[in-house]
Amino acid sequence: MNAPMLQTRGLDKRFGSLIVAQSIEIDLPQGARHALIGPNGAGKTTLINLMTGRLRPDAGQIRLGGENISALAPEARVKRGLVRTFQINTLFPHLTALEAVTLAVCERRGQAGRWWRKLSDHKDAIDEAHEILTSLQLAADCLRPTHALAYGQQRLLEIALALATRPKVLLLDEPAAGVPQGESAELFTAIANLPKDMAVLFIEHDMNLVFRFATRIIVLVAGAVLTEGTPDEIAADPRVREVYLGSAHHG
Amino acid sequence: MTTQIVGILFDGLAFGMLLFVLSVGLSVTLGLMNFINLAHGSFAMIGGYVTLTLMREGGWPFLATLPAAFVITALISVAFERTLFRRLYRSTALNQVLLTIGLVFVSAAIAAYFYGTVQQPIQVPDYLRGSHEIAGVSFATYRLFLLVVALFLVALLIGGLEYTRFGARIRAAVDDQRMARGLGIDVDSVFAVTFALGSGLAGLGGALAIEIVGLDPSFGFHYLVFMLIVVAVGGLGSVGGSFAAAALLGIFDVAGKYYVPALGSFLIYIVLIVLLFVRPRGLFGKR
Amino acid sequence: MPAIRTTPADTAPGPQAFLAAQTRWRLVEILFWLALLSPFFLLPTYLTLASQIAITALFALSVDLILGYAGIITLGHALFFGIGAYTAGLVAKWGWGEAISGLVLAALAAGFVGYVTGFIITRVHHLALIMITLGLGLVAVEAANSASWLTGGADGLQGVRMWKLLGTFEFDLWGYSAYGYSLGALFVFFLISRRIVHSPFGLSLRGIRENLDRMPAIGAPSRARLHKIYVISAAMAGVAGALLAQTTETVSLETLGFQRSADVVIMLILGGTGRLYGGIVGAIIFMIARDQLADMNPQYWYFWIGLLLVAVVLFLSNGILGGLDRLLPRRRGDA
Ligand SMILES: Nc1ncnc2c1ncn2[C@@H]1O[C@H](COP(=O)(O)OP(=O)(O)OP(=O)(O)O)[C@@H](O)[C@H]1O
Ligand SMILES: [Mg+2]
Predict the structure, then answer these.
(1) What is the domain count for chain B?
(2) Interface-testing mutation among C307, C312, C313, C318, with chain B (most B C-beta atoms within 10 A)
(3) C310 is a domain residue
């Protein structure tokens, strides 16, 4: 296995007296398909916020490809390939899906600060955006404003925006949250088909999906990593069953 | 020299206390709903005109008009809150600014229609006029009165917030509205009552201000700037912060006008800008 | 929200054509600009007013770029208008009466102040932002007032003498040159603004306005983008102020005042934000109404303005142009 793409070392975070991250150490190798699971409020989203720089850790380090990125601004981390999606849709309501993804493509290409050339003259960027949308089955509706898209399509657009930045490490925060059961497997198939060298960490509550699509599982409880292992190891772990599967609503 | 400094400190403090009474309601309502109410100064102006009218037309004694200024302003404000403001709690800051600025314009025009655009003086009773001399420094009686009223209000507000059930609800709602709702607190009606109290205080402040700064239709806008400074510096939703900020601003303003009159309000604005830049949540703001 | 889909997906334009269509000139636009030429022939007695309207429209356009497109609320943009006005006025007073270079200097001065204050503006939000824009405006008035040796203080800057425009056109009493000059400047900056909003940069501004939270997650340096548009807008406001100084050959403290900052926002809201023409239409209506009601006591003028603001916020949140959009058959694309 390659050296880890993303590493956290001793990440701590508390909100007042509430400890939400406790010396978290996670390694995400290239090509990973890891799941992050844990009960509601365990601190999963917070961990993604810490990794991507939305929140500042009280202590600890985040490394991307061996480089310490703890001091970088969120957008600088994205530029280096560390990208996330949001549990609750965080989109651009009045931009069309095409515009939104084109914007992300232009950002990646360093063209989004240009004011002297028309957007419509950036034909490659538009084509690239359209390809991404097509690959996620959004092409037919990509000229509609985001707020007019069906909820499931908006979840896909979350992923499309992330892909437009060409991530090396992709952190998906409950990509299927709120999506009907039938569609969520489809969505995860799309995730499974992401480029092989991309490291993916996804949060998901549905154990069927987790065991089907994850190669390794990290269990987070009350801000600390309880255990980490292959699906078989996790399934057999009595502690996991006790603190998580026993009490989980999806269990 | 020292007597001069004491005198300036005293005058500044008295002015600051006036600003506190005018602003504290805005601070709490902003902290509660994040609603930018630029019409707060207009509520203060209403209080001023209530006192003026009752004294002139009704022959009421000054002190008796003060509770009336409080109550009438509170009632008017709550009518606006229920009909207009509440529609915009979830709207953009821009819409809030526009709506309330619109109300400032309208209220100033109405005041001008009924009272003209000139300054309206009032006759405060004899026992509030003149001054007391203590250790060689003369203290204007009316300013002493202001100080007493303000300190009394501070005690009342802090006590009310800390030790009453309603106060606990307000604090909970300011701290975390979602959580407060989750605990079964009816945040909307808490807000309506707080809004009425805060605006009532502004009305009282407007009434108290006539003797110090006069009253004309531009009052609502002119003192709005001071109020916003108090709120911005004191931190949203903080009574203690507003108190400290108002005291500082009052002293700063009076001292500035005395020692460096050429600079006018220049210094205050500069300090404000620098402060907000360094601490966008205000000097005493927690959140 | 009305249903927006008017064309079935299979006949929809391709992505390239869709985005290209947004930047195309429409017939109404061309007619609109041609109509702006009509005062030369139809209303020659109103050319001075028309010139003031064009200047105010340019100012409103500059505010639309930051308020309408980037979501920066400002109650102090007259700061830049005034800086432009004083710069152009002083340059002319000191003996350099050439107009175009005066505009350039004014744009540079206002843009520079925009660059410096931009470090503050782009770091604060909500109430603090409103307070700081307000505060900066007030500081400028106080400063100009105390520096009366330079600015003429409350009496205004006197002794501004302009040379012939482009060495040919005298700034005449009737305002032929003034209106031609102001309208020309408005048109040039409109073209620039139009290009900006249809560029990738413009798209990223809309992204910031739509969801500031998402921008870092797609790798966008929002603060730098806001800073950039703020400087551009400041420079444009400076040009508007310079035009006023040059065409009226005087500068008053009022060019910096809160009233001007508030009025321009009102015009923009009235016309409709984030659509370039909103500020222009708003300026035309506002200025003509004020001219027609000039006899009215200013207090009462603001009574109606106040009512109008309340009404627009409650019932017409996209301004007049937004209202027209809803009435007329919908054109696709404009977001
Ligand atoms: N900004 C914040 N301030 C204070 N507390 C917070 C903040 N963000 C999250 N929390 C708290 O931290 C804890 C962890 O939240 P987090 O969102 O990370 O959980 P999660 O594991 O993602 O849960 P879920 O499965 O419901 O998404 C929760 O108790 C939450 O209330
Ligand atoms: Mg979560």
Answers:
(1) 1
(2) C313
(3) no
Identify any residues that bridge with A37 across adjacent strands, giving them in sequence order: A219
Q: What 3-state class would DSSP assign to C97? A: coil
Which of A75, A94, A96 is closest, CB to CB, to C221? A75
B143-175 pLDDT tens trace: 999 999 999 998 998 888 888 888 888 888 877
State residue C215's pLDDT score.
95
Alpha carbon distance C268, C282 (integer Å): 6
Q: Residue B263 falls within a domain, yes or no?
A: no
Distance of CA A101 to the CA centre of its chain: 16
**Integer Cα distance of A42 and A21 in angstroms:** 9
Distance CA(B252)–CA(B150), nearest Å, equals 18
How many angstroms separate the CA atoms of B136 and B133, rounded? 6
- Alpha-carbon span A100 to A82, nearest angstrom: 19
For residue B206, what are the domain limits?
2-118+147-219
User: What CATH number did the domain enclosing A10 receive?
Assistant: 3.40.50.300
Determine, yes or no, domain membership for A116. Answer: no
Q: Candidates A14, A24, A46: which one to mutate for ligand 1, based on the most atoms within 8 Å of Cβ?
A: A46
Q: Which residue is closest in CA terms to ligand 1's atom 18? A: A43
With CA atoms as reference, the chain B residue closest to C128 would be: B280
Beta strand A33-37 with A216-221: parallel, antiparallel or unpaired? parallel
Q: Quote the pTM value.
A: 0.89
In a domain, B17, yes or no: yes
A199 neighbors A6 (Cβ within 8 angstroms):
yes
Token readout for A198 is 């991309």
pLDDT at C92: 92
Query: Would an 8 Å CB–CB cutoff place C156 in contact with chain A?
Result: no
DSSP label of B158: H
Residue B264 included in any domain = no
Helix C222-248, helix C47-63: angle, nearest 10: 170
Q: Using 70 as the pLDDT threshold, list the residues of chain C that sit under it.
A: 1-12, 167, 173, 328-335
Question: C123–B217: do the CB atoms touch at under 8 Å?
Answer: no
* Band of residue B223 on the pLDDT scale cut at 50, 70, 90: confident
Residue A237 within a domain: yes
Q: Which atom of ligand 1 is nearest to the CA of A223?
A: 14
The verdict on residue B240 lying in a domain is no
DSSP string, A24-68: EEEEEETT-EEEEE-STTSSHHHHHHHHHTSS--SEEEEEETTEE
Pocket-testing residue among A45, A56, A250, ligand 1, by greatest number of atoms within 8 A of Cβ: A45
User: Which of B73, B39, B52, B84 lies closest to B220 in space, CA to CA?
Assistant: B39
The domain tally of chain A equals 1
The boundaries of the domain holding residue C176 are 14-38+46-257
Number of domains within chain C: 1
Asked, for residue C209, whether it belongs to a domain, the answer is yes
Subunits with 3+ C-beta pairs closer than 8 A to C: A, B
* Option in C13, C201, C217 nearest A114 (CB): C201
Contact indicator for C80, C107 with CB cutoff of 8 Å: no
Q: Facing residues of C139 across strands?
A: none
Q: Does residue A194 lie within any of the structural domains?
A: yes
Return d(Cα B251, Cα B18) in angstroms, integer. 12
Assess if residue A69 is contained within a domain.
yes
- Which residues of chain A, if any, have pLDDT below 50? 1, 248-251
Q: Is B184 exposed, middle or buried (0-12, 13-18, 19+ CB in 10 A)?
A: exposed
> What are B252-261's contacts with CB under 8 Å, separation 24+?
B252/B12, B253/B12, B253/B15, B253/B226, B254/B8, B254/B11, B254/B12, B254/B15, B255/B8, B255/B9, B255/B12, B258/B8
Most confident of B12-26, B175-189, C307-321: B12-26
Phi, psi of A221, deg, nearest 5: -135, 125
Q: Is residue C68 part of a domain?
A: yes
